[in-house]
Write a structure and sequence with these properties.
The complex is a heterodimer.
Chain A: H1 4-13, E1 17-25, E2 30-39, E3 44-48, H2 55-62, E4 70-75, E5 90-93, H3 105-115, H4 121-129, H5 145-156, E6 163-167, H6 175-190, E7 194-198, H7 202-208, E8 211-216, E9 219-225, H8 226-229, H9 236-246
Parallel strand pairs in A: 3-7, 3-8, 5-6, 6-7
Antiparallel strand pairs in A: 1-2, 1-4, 8-9
Helix pairs in contact in A: 3-4
Chain B: H1 5-17, H2 21-42, H3 52-85, H4 88-94, H5 98-134, H6 143-171, H7 174-195, H8 197-200, H9 204-212, H10 222-246
Classes of the chains: A alpha/beta, B mainly alpha.
Chain lengths: ~250, ~250
């Protein structure tokens, strides 16, 4: 791959994902509090934070499932709902088990392909890509967690997305699967794609991502290249724990 | 590309065809229609099956009623199963315009509900005719009565599928929505038929029965009953769409 390509796309798509002052207030608590960041094409960004820090809510707002109380989360300067052909711009996996247990993996993908007018042969292509050809015609209830993660990724890759949003995609993958996922994300970014991936597996994150966003109690506490956050001699885990422990408590919603 | 209704509709058809749910409900519709006819037409003494109204009641209660109940379940499950299994997330990611998703589900429910209504009323008409004649009862029903039971029952079930879909979208919880529909159609409205006939006759369950044939307390005019039942379905669907668009999917 020509190394100029990502830079060239950078110029065209700069700030393709822009989150500004994003806030979500529920009755009792502010789940996401004035969050701002942007994602650069050609990079894999890790999205880290303790359970309940607001990662999941942030990803749902970016993908139009949850309406922000304030601020905005834009892809190509528009909210997700206004993207003309979302499957060909964004691929996402939010939960590891968003499948009907009685439907086969292949039929799950056929349902998604139909909704986005994606030609049927693409279904078998992505099944091969994630290594699920043999299990494709079995009902999802017979799948292991790792197989479900692979099926979710197959759904995210059905279109030709240039942005991947993945919530805990490595959970349940075996070591081979983890390596495969890492290579997939690196390849995706090398082709100019943008990746936002949340994870608690910090050792894996350190090997996969270029940049790290850390949130705690709904607020951004770090936004830096991985080399800067965890310089030689310090682990990402040390840096992460120092950041999240020092974070101020969430404010109750007004 | 903006609304993409044909694509959403194709996706909904595939959803319905790729789980055993719809087939199971269809089989239950046929089975229960036969069972209900047998309970009435074979179980009741001949003296209670000696009038036109008595015999028609067997057709309507076995056919229209069961068709409407299962059509309502079919509609409700189209929405609640997506929330129960989490597929609502990929569905809304593929089709972010939620009105398009609800519209596609409504079109499919209308068709599926009609199929269930046809299955239930055709089965009960056939089983009823056989049961009456095998007992040697004089038939007080003519072709018009059977036609009305089938056509009216089919129309009623298709509208009840829309009401079921709307209830499913509003309640979202599968057990809550299906239990609510069951209790309303099989218990609440049945109690009101005798308890408060003037209220009962403008309620959606009774209106469905009115479409399939007269019954005490129901509106007699098919046109009036159709319009009122359509109005119920339209209002329910409008509310369901509004809530579906506005509410967060977590």
């Amino acid at each position: 791959m020509n190394t100029d390509v990502p830079a060239a796309r950078d110029a065209v798509c700069d700030g393709a994902v822009k989150v500004e002052n994003l806030t979500k207030r529920y009755a009792a608590v502010t789940a996401v509090d004035d969050l701002s960041f942007s994602l650069r094409p050609g990079t894999v960004t890790g999205f880290l934070g303790p359970n309940g820090a607001g990662k999941t809510t942030t990803l749902r707002m970016l993908l139009g499932l949850v309406t922000p109380s304030n601020g905005s989360a834009l892809i190509d300067d528009r909210p997700y709902a206004r993207i003309d052909d979302p499957a060909n711009r964004v691929g996402a996996v939010l939960e590891s088990n968003d499948f009907h247990p009685g439907r086969s993996g292949r039929n799950h993908l056929r349902v998604l392909a139909a909704a986005s007018s994606i030609p049927a042969p693409r279904v078998d292509e992505v099944l091969a890509l994630v290594g699920l050809i043999d299990a494709a015609r079995r009902p999802v209830k017979s799948y292991s967690l790792g197989m479900r993660q692979r099926l979710g990724l197959a759904g995210a890759l059905l279109g030709q997305p240039t942005l991947l949003v993945l919530d805990e995609p490595a959970n349940g993958l075996d070591p081979e699967g983890v390596r495969w996922l890492r290579d997939l994300l690196h390849g995706f970014a090398a082709d100019g794609g943008t990746v936002l991936v949340s994870s608690h597996l910090l050792a894996e994150v350190a090997q996969t991502v270029d940049r790290v966003l850390v949130i705690a109690n709904g607020r951004l506490v770090a936004d830096a290249p991985i080399a800067e956050l965890a310089p030689a001699g310090q682990t990402l885990e040390d840096a992460y724990l120092a950041l999240t422990r020092a974070a101020p408590a969430a404010e109750p919603a007004a | 590309m903006a609304s993409a209704l044909p694509a959403a509709l194709r996706s909904e058809v595939l959803k319905a065809r790729t789980t055993p749910t719809a087939l199971g409900l269809a089989a239950a519709t046929v089975g229960l229609s036969v069972l209900a006819v047998l309970l009435h037409a074979v179980g009741l003494p001949a003296s209670e099956l000696s009038t036109h109204a008595n015999q028609q009641r067997v057709l309507v209660e076995a056919g229209e009623n069961i068709g409407a109940v299962f059509a309502a379940l079919l509609g409700a499950l189209a929405m609640t199963a997506e929330f129960r299994h989490g597929t609502i997330r990929p569905t809304f990611l593929s089709t972010p315009r939620r009105t398009t998703v609800v519209t596609a589900k409504a079109l499919l429910s209308l068709a599926g509900g009609a199929m269930f209504g046809l299955l239930a009323t055709a089965t009960s008409s056939l089983a009823g005719a056989i049961a009456f004649s095998s007992r040697g009862l004089a038939s007080h029903l003519d072709g018009t009565d059977y036609l009305r039971a089938i056509v009216g029952g089919t129309a009623a079930a298709s509208l009840w599928a829309l009401i079921g879909l709307a209830v499913g979208a509003i309640v979202r919880n599968q057990v809550g929505a299906t239990a609510g529909l069951f209790v309303w159609l099989l218990i609440v409205e049945n109690l009101l038929v005798d308890g408060a006939p003037s209220v009962s006759k403008v309620l959606p369950g009774s209106l469905g029965q009115a479409l399939a044939g007269q019954r005490t307390g129901t509106l007699h005019a098919a046109v009036g009953a159709s319009l009122l039942l359509i109005a119920y379905a339209a209002v329910a669907l409008a509310l369901a769409t509004r809530l579906t668009v506005r509410r967060d999917v977590t």
